[in-house]
Protein backbone atom coordinates (compact mmCIF):
# COMPACT_ATOMS: atom_id res chain seq x y z
CA UNK A 1 0.00 0.00 0.00
CA UNK A 2 1.13 3.60 -0.64
CA UNK A 3 3.07 5.27 2.18
CA UNK A 4 1.42 8.40 3.56
CA UNK A 5 3.79 10.50 5.70
CA UNK A 6 2.67 10.70 9.34
CA UNK A 7 -0.63 9.00 8.52
CA UNK A 8 -1.47 5.40 9.29
CA UNK A 9 -4.14 4.10 6.97
CA UNK A 10 -6.11 0.92 7.44
CA UNK A 11 -9.04 -0.13 5.29
CA UNK A 12 -11.77 -1.93 7.22
CA UNK A 13 -14.63 -3.02 4.99
CA UNK A 14 -16.01 0.15 3.42
CA UNK A 15 -14.19 2.46 5.86
CA UNK A 16 -10.71 3.97 5.72
CA UNK A 17 -9.34 4.42 9.23
CA UNK A 18 -6.77 7.21 9.23
CA UNK A 19 -4.53 7.95 12.23
CA UNK A 20 -2.50 11.15 12.44
CA UNK A 21 0.80 9.85 13.74
CA UNK A 22 3.38 12.53 14.36
CA UNK A 23 4.47 12.41 18.00
CA UNK A 24 4.46 14.03 20.41
CA UNK A 25 1.47 16.23 19.43
CA UNK A 26 0.39 14.92 15.98
CA UNK A 27 1.22 18.29 14.44
CA UNK A 28 0.85 19.00 10.72
CA UNK A 29 3.80 19.72 8.46
CA UNK A 30 4.44 19.81 4.69
CA UNK A 31 4.77 16.06 4.38
CA UNK A 32 1.64 15.15 6.33
CA UNK A 33 -0.52 17.77 4.58
CA UNK A 34 0.64 16.56 1.18
CA UNK A 35 0.01 13.00 2.31
CA UNK A 36 -3.55 13.80 3.44
CA UNK A 37 -4.34 15.42 0.09
CA UNK A 38 -2.98 12.41 -1.78
CA UNK A 39 -4.78 9.98 0.51
CA UNK A 40 -8.17 11.62 -0.05
CA UNK A 41 -7.58 11.52 -3.82
CA UNK A 42 -6.74 7.81 -3.56
CA UNK A 43 -9.80 7.08 -1.41
CA UNK A 44 -12.05 8.97 -3.85
CA UNK A 45 -10.77 6.62 -6.55
CA UNK A 46 -11.48 3.50 -4.48
CA UNK A 47 -15.08 2.49 -5.21
CA UNK A 48 -15.13 0.20 -2.19
CA UNK A 49 -14.58 3.02 0.33
CA UNK A 50 -17.67 4.87 1.56
CA UNK A 51 -16.41 6.49 4.77
CA UNK A 52 -13.24 7.91 6.31
CA UNK A 53 -12.59 8.05 10.04
CA UNK A 54 -9.71 10.23 11.23
CA UNK A 55 -8.22 10.18 14.72
CA UNK A 56 -4.92 10.91 16.48
CA UNK A 57 -2.34 8.40 17.66
CA UNK A 58 -1.84 8.10 21.40
CA UNK A 59 -4.33 9.15 24.03
CA UNK A 60 -3.52 12.84 24.53
CA UNK A 61 -3.64 14.57 21.14
CA UNK A 62 -5.99 14.42 18.16
CA UNK A 63 -3.70 17.09 16.72
CA UNK A 64 -2.12 20.26 18.16
CA UNK A 65 -2.28 21.94 14.73
CA UNK A 66 0.59 23.28 12.67
CA UNK A 67 4.09 22.49 13.81
CA UNK A 68 4.95 25.88 15.32
CA UNK A 69 8.66 25.31 14.66
CA UNK A 70 7.87 26.13 11.02
CA UNK A 71 6.81 29.67 11.92
CA UNK A 72 9.63 30.49 14.33
CA UNK A 73 11.71 32.72 12.04
CA UNK A 74 8.99 34.85 10.45
CA UNK A 75 9.55 33.43 6.95
CA UNK A 76 6.76 34.64 4.66
CA UNK A 77 7.55 32.07 1.98
CA UNK A 78 6.98 29.32 4.52
CA UNK A 79 3.76 31.03 5.64
CA UNK A 80 2.55 31.13 2.03
CA UNK A 81 3.48 27.53 1.39
CA UNK A 82 1.90 26.25 4.60
CA UNK A 83 -1.38 28.09 4.20
CA UNK A 84 -1.66 26.73 0.65
CA UNK A 85 -0.90 23.20 1.82
CA UNK A 86 -3.41 23.42 4.67
CA UNK A 87 -6.04 24.79 2.31
CA UNK A 88 -5.47 22.09 -0.32
CA UNK A 89 -5.45 19.24 2.19
CA UNK A 90 -8.49 20.27 4.21
CA UNK A 91 -10.50 21.35 1.16
CA UNK A 92 -9.78 17.93 -0.32
CA UNK A 93 -10.96 16.36 2.93
CA UNK A 94 -14.14 18.46 2.93
CA UNK A 95 -14.82 17.39 -0.66
CA UNK A 96 -14.22 13.69 0.04
CA UNK A 97 -16.82 11.69 -1.93
CA UNK A 98 -17.96 9.68 1.12
CA UNK A 99 -18.63 10.58 4.73
CA UNK A 100 -15.76 11.80 6.93
CA UNK A 101 -15.88 11.44 10.71
CA UNK A 102 -13.39 12.99 13.13
CA UNK A 103 -12.84 10.84 16.22
CA UNK A 104 -11.42 13.52 18.54
CA UNK A 105 -9.41 11.56 21.08
CA UNK A 106 -7.71 14.47 22.86
CA UNK A 107 -6.51 18.00 22.18
CA UNK A 108 -7.73 19.37 18.85
CA UNK A 109 -6.01 22.73 18.57
CA UNK A 110 -5.62 25.17 15.70
CA UNK A 111 -5.06 23.24 12.47
CA UNK A 112 -6.00 20.10 14.41
CA UNK A 113 -9.48 21.45 15.08
CA UNK A 114 -9.64 22.80 11.53
CA UNK A 115 -9.03 19.25 10.29
CA UNK A 116 -12.01 18.08 12.36
CA UNK A 117 -14.05 21.03 11.04
CA UNK A 118 -13.36 19.84 7.48
CA UNK A 119 -15.03 16.53 8.34
CA UNK A 120 -18.75 15.90 8.05
CA UNK A 121 -19.21 14.66 11.63
CA UNK A 122 -17.28 15.08 14.89
CA UNK A 123 -17.28 12.71 17.87
CA UNK A 124 -15.25 13.77 20.92
CA UNK A 125 -14.00 11.87 23.92
CA UNK A 126 -15.04 13.34 27.25
CA UNK A 127 -11.51 14.57 28.09
CA UNK A 128 -10.95 16.25 24.69
CA UNK A 129 -10.23 19.97 24.54
CA UNK A 130 -10.79 22.10 21.47
CA UNK A 131 -9.50 25.56 20.58
CA UNK A 132 -8.39 27.86 17.80
CA UNK A 133 -5.55 29.45 19.81
CA UNK A 134 -3.63 30.95 16.89
CA UNK A 135 -4.05 34.56 18.03
CA UNK A 136 -2.24 33.66 21.26
CA UNK A 137 0.90 33.05 19.20
CA UNK A 138 0.43 35.96 16.78
CA UNK A 139 -1.14 33.86 14.01
CA UNK A 140 -4.66 33.29 12.76
CA UNK A 141 -6.61 30.16 11.79
CA UNK A 142 -5.79 29.92 8.10
CA UNK A 143 -7.06 26.42 7.36
CA UNK A 144 -10.75 27.25 7.23
CA UNK A 145 -11.36 27.96 10.93
CA UNK A 146 -12.68 31.51 10.63
CA UNK A 147 -15.23 30.33 8.05
CA UNK A 148 -16.19 26.85 9.27
CA UNK A 149 -16.45 27.47 13.01
CA UNK A 150 -19.13 30.22 12.95
CA UNK A 151 -21.20 28.07 10.60
CA UNK A 152 -21.31 25.30 13.21
CA UNK A 153 -21.43 27.17 16.51
CA UNK A 154 -22.66 30.65 15.55
CA UNK A 155 -20.68 33.87 15.50
CA UNK A 156 -20.72 34.43 19.27
CA UNK A 157 -19.00 31.22 20.26
CA UNK A 158 -16.72 31.40 17.22
CA UNK A 159 -15.57 34.84 18.35
CA UNK A 160 -15.07 33.64 21.93
CA UNK A 161 -12.83 30.87 20.62
CA UNK A 162 -10.97 32.79 17.90
CA UNK A 163 -10.72 36.27 19.44
CA UNK A 164 -10.54 35.39 23.15
CA UNK A 165 -8.64 32.11 22.82
CA UNK A 166 -11.33 30.20 24.75
CA UNK A 167 -10.76 26.49 24.91
CA UNK A 168 -13.91 24.34 25.08
CA UNK A 169 -14.26 20.95 26.72
CA UNK A 170 -16.19 18.13 25.07
CA UNK A 171 -19.48 18.77 26.88
CA UNK A 172 -19.43 22.46 25.96
CA UNK A 173 -18.48 21.51 22.40
CA UNK A 174 -21.55 19.28 22.20
CA UNK A 175 -23.83 21.95 23.69
CA UNK A 176 -22.73 24.58 21.16
CA UNK A 177 -22.85 22.23 18.17
CA UNK A 178 -19.12 21.86 17.60
CA UNK A 179 -19.36 18.09 18.05
CA UNK A 180 -22.43 15.92 17.67
CA UNK A 181 -21.56 13.26 20.25
CA UNK A 182 -19.42 12.86 23.37
CA UNK A 183 -18.17 9.41 24.35
CA UNK A 184 -15.98 8.05 27.13
CA UNK A 185 -12.19 8.17 27.14
CA UNK A 186 -10.74 5.83 24.52
CA UNK A 187 -14.10 5.30 22.77
CA UNK A 188 -14.18 7.86 19.95
CA UNK A 189 -12.67 5.60 17.31
CA UNK A 190 -15.08 2.76 18.05
CA UNK A 191 -18.07 5.15 17.99
CA UNK A 192 -16.88 6.63 14.70
CA UNK A 193 -16.39 3.21 13.13
CA UNK A 194 -19.91 2.22 14.20
CA UNK A 195 -21.32 5.31 12.54
CA UNK A 196 -19.27 4.50 9.43
CA UNK A 197 -20.98 1.11 9.35
CA UNK A 198 -24.31 2.93 9.18
CA UNK A 199 -22.96 4.94 6.25
CA UNK A 200 -22.19 1.67 4.46
CA UNK A 201 -25.87 0.75 4.65
CA UNK A 202 -26.81 3.85 2.63
CA UNK A 203 -26.50 4.05 -1.13
CA UNK A 204 -23.06 5.59 -1.82
CA UNK A 205 -24.52 7.26 -4.90
CA UNK A 206 -27.17 8.96 -2.74
CA UNK A 207 -24.70 9.88 0.01
CA UNK A 208 -22.30 11.53 -2.42
CA UNK A 209 -24.98 13.79 -3.90
CA UNK A 210 -26.71 14.48 -0.57
CA UNK A 211 -23.41 15.65 0.93
CA UNK A 212 -22.86 18.03 -1.96
CA UNK A 213 -26.42 19.37 -1.60
CA UNK A 214 -26.00 19.98 2.14
CA UNK A 215 -22.64 21.70 1.58
CA UNK A 216 -24.14 23.90 -1.15
CA UNK A 217 -26.67 25.19 1.36
CA UNK A 218 -23.85 27.30 2.81
CA UNK A 219 -23.11 29.12 -0.42
CA UNK A 220 -26.18 29.08 -2.66
CA UNK A 221 -29.64 30.41 -1.79
CA UNK A 222 -32.43 27.85 -1.10
CA UNK A 223 -34.39 29.16 -4.10
CA UNK A 224 -31.62 27.85 -6.35
CA UNK A 225 -30.76 24.75 -4.32
CA UNK A 226 -34.33 23.48 -4.16
CA UNK A 227 -34.35 23.29 -7.95
CA UNK A 228 -30.96 21.63 -7.90
CA UNK A 229 -32.20 19.12 -5.30
CA UNK A 230 -35.02 18.05 -7.63
CA UNK A 231 -32.62 17.76 -10.58
CA UNK A 232 -30.27 15.58 -8.55
CA UNK A 233 -33.16 13.38 -7.44
CA UNK A 234 -34.05 12.71 -11.07
CA UNK A 235 -30.37 12.11 -11.96
CA UNK A 236 -30.14 9.40 -9.31
CA UNK A 237 -32.41 7.33 -11.54
CA UNK A 238 -29.43 6.90 -13.89
CA UNK A 239 -27.61 4.96 -11.14
CA UNK A 240 -27.62 1.23 -10.52
CA UNK A 241 -27.79 2.01 -6.79
CA UNK A 242 -31.21 3.63 -7.17
CA UNK A 243 -32.60 0.52 -8.85
CA UNK A 244 -30.93 -1.76 -6.33
CA UNK A 245 -32.14 0.20 -3.30
CA UNK A 246 -35.81 0.23 -4.20
CA UNK A 247 -35.84 -3.32 -5.59
CA UNK A 248 -34.08 -4.68 -2.48
CA UNK A 249 -36.63 -2.99 -0.24
CA UNK A 250 -39.57 -4.39 -2.19
CA UNK A 251 -37.97 -7.87 -2.26
CA UNK A 252 -37.33 -7.61 1.52
CA UNK A 253 -33.57 -8.20 1.14
CA UNK A 254 -30.43 -6.17 1.92
CA UNK A 255 -29.20 -3.98 -0.94
CA UNK A 256 -25.85 -4.72 -2.62
CA UNK A 257 -24.50 -1.30 -3.56
CA UNK A 258 -22.54 -0.72 -6.78
CA UNK A 259 -21.32 2.84 -6.06
CA UNK A 260 -22.51 3.93 -9.47
C1 LIG B 1 -3.22 26.88 10.03
C2 LIG B 1 -2.90 26.32 11.35
C3 LIG B 1 -2.23 27.05 12.31
C4 LIG B 1 -1.94 26.40 13.60
O1 LIG B 1 -2.39 25.30 13.85
S1 LIG B 1 -0.96 27.24 14.69
C5 LIG B 1 -0.79 26.12 16.07
C6 LIG B 1 -2.03 26.13 16.92
N1 LIG B 1 -1.87 25.21 18.02
C7 LIG B 1 -1.43 25.59 19.23
O2 LIG B 1 -1.14 26.76 19.46
C8 LIG B 1 -1.35 24.52 20.28
C9 LIG B 1 0.04 24.51 20.89
N2 LIG B 1 0.09 23.51 21.94
C10 LIG B 1 -0.37 23.74 23.19
O3 LIG B 1 -0.88 24.78 23.52
C11 LIG B 1 -0.14 22.65 24.20
O4 LIG B 1 0.71 21.68 23.65
C12 LIG B 1 -1.45 21.93 24.65
C13 LIG B 1 -2.31 22.91 25.47
C14 LIG B 1 -2.24 21.41 23.47
C15 LIG B 1 -1.05 20.74 25.58
O5 LIG B 1 -0.23 21.22 26.61
P1 LIG B 1 0.66 20.21 27.47
O6 LIG B 1 -0.17 19.13 28.03
O7 LIG B 1 1.44 21.06 28.46
O8 LIG B 1 1.66 19.54 26.44
P2 LIG B 1 2.97 20.19 25.81
O9 LIG B 1 4.12 19.89 26.71
O10 LIG B 1 2.75 21.61 25.46
O11 LIG B 1 3.09 19.38 24.41
C16 LIG B 1 3.79 18.16 24.30
C17 LIG B 1 4.92 18.37 23.29
O12 LIG B 1 4.31 18.71 22.03
C18 LIG B 1 4.88 19.94 21.57
N3 LIG B 1 3.85 20.69 20.84
C19 LIG B 1 2.56 20.85 21.19
N4 LIG B 1 1.92 21.58 20.27
C20 LIG B 1 2.83 21.88 19.32
C21 LIG B 1 2.78 22.62 18.10
N5 LIG B 1 1.61 23.14 17.64
N6 LIG B 1 3.89 22.74 17.38
C22 LIG B 1 5.04 22.18 17.79
N7 LIG B 1 5.17 21.47 18.94
C23 LIG B 1 4.06 21.33 19.68
C24 LIG B 1 5.31 20.66 22.83
O13 LIG B 1 6.28 21.63 22.53
C25 LIG B 1 5.85 19.52 23.66
O14 LIG B 1 7.11 19.18 23.14
P3 LIG B 1 8.31 18.76 24.14
O15 LIG B 1 7.83 17.51 24.82
O16 LIG B 1 9.49 18.55 23.27
O17 LIG B 1 8.48 19.88 25.12
Helix vs. strand class: alpha/beta
**Secondary-structure element sequence?**
EEHEEHEEHEEHEHEHHHH
What general form does the structure show? globular
Largest sheet: 6 strands, mixed
What count of domains describes the coordinates?
2
Helix content: 40-55%
What's the level 1 CATH class of the largest domain? Alpha Beta
Q: How many DSSP H or I helices? A: 9
Let me know the average pLDDT: 97
Low-confidence stretches: none
Q: What value does the Rg take, in angstroms?
A: 19 Å
Question: What's the β-strand tally?
Answer: 10
Strand content: 15-25%
Q: What is the CATH topology of the largest domain?
A: 2-enoyl-CoA Hydratase, Chain A, domain 1
The strands making up the biggest β-sheet line up spatially as: 1-2-3-5-7-10
Cα-to-Cα separation, first versus last residue: 25 Å
GO molecular function: enoyl-CoA hydratase activity
Protein name: Enoyl-CoA hydratase
Family: Belongs to the enoyl-CoA hydratase/isomerase family.
Enzyme class: lyase
What layout of secondary structure does this protein have?
Elements: E1 7-12, E2 15-20, H1 30-44, E3 51-56, E4 61-63, H2 76-94, E5 99-104, E6 107-109, H3 111-117, E7 121-125, E8 129-131, H4 145-163, E9 168-169, H5 170-176, E10 181-183, H6 188-200, H7 204-216, H8 222-235, H9 240-250
Helix pairs in contact: 1-2
The chain binds ligand A1D88.
Ligand A1D88 binds at residues 24-25, 27, 64-69, 86, 107, 109-111, 133-134, 137, 139, 141-143.
